[in-house]
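On clarity, I found the account of how folds are encoded harder to follow than it need be. For illustration, here is how one protein appears when written out as sequence plus structure tokens:

:::
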Amino acid sequence: MNRRKILLLIMAGIVVFCWYVAQFDGAPQPVDPLLVAPLPEAPAWQSQPTLLQHINEPATIYIVTGMPGPDGLFDALRLEVKSGARSSARIKFGPNTAFTPFDSAETVGIPAIEFRGLKHRRPTPYLFKFPGPGGPGFDFVDSATGVVHIVAGTGNSKRTLLTVTLINSSSIPEMRSLLWSDRSRRLAAVLWRESGLWTLYLFSLIPAQT
């Protein structure tokens, strides 16, 4: 086998290795957001924060990250959408209170995910499998390579709020759980883990006047 063939085989091996092994989830690329707010109060190791609105404060979001205190109140971050101004608050939310939680896109479909690219079943090695006979082997997982578009609206009014580039990623199902909208459908929210903390991306759901 001559050197040229060996080089081609090596290059083919690298391509195959990258295709099946390399993984990449790009940073979110927002399009005309109302606000991008890193949340140092919510480290990435915690579950995603709870987003709420007070019924009399449509331009303000309350963000809760912890458990209630002995008095039943939650420590919350009060975030003004227009200015990004922050302040601390202690609130009580739930049935029969003035606070309403944001609705999950998994339930109401707003905002939505559109994927443009290639999906395939990628073999993934494992050392042990439980339950099962154990020992190393391969499993097949759903994998996506392309660009995720998080969109709002339908037909001619549809617009992209945020994009994420993926290579061999299995994160699309989790991505859907990070999408929210307020009860009045005026705001869309995307929560994202980055730089060791959660970041909140806010977008208007009200179509621009033409």
User: Anything to note?
Assistant: The mean pLDDT is 85. Residues 3-21 form the longest helix (19 residues). Helices lie at 3-21, 105-108, 172-176.
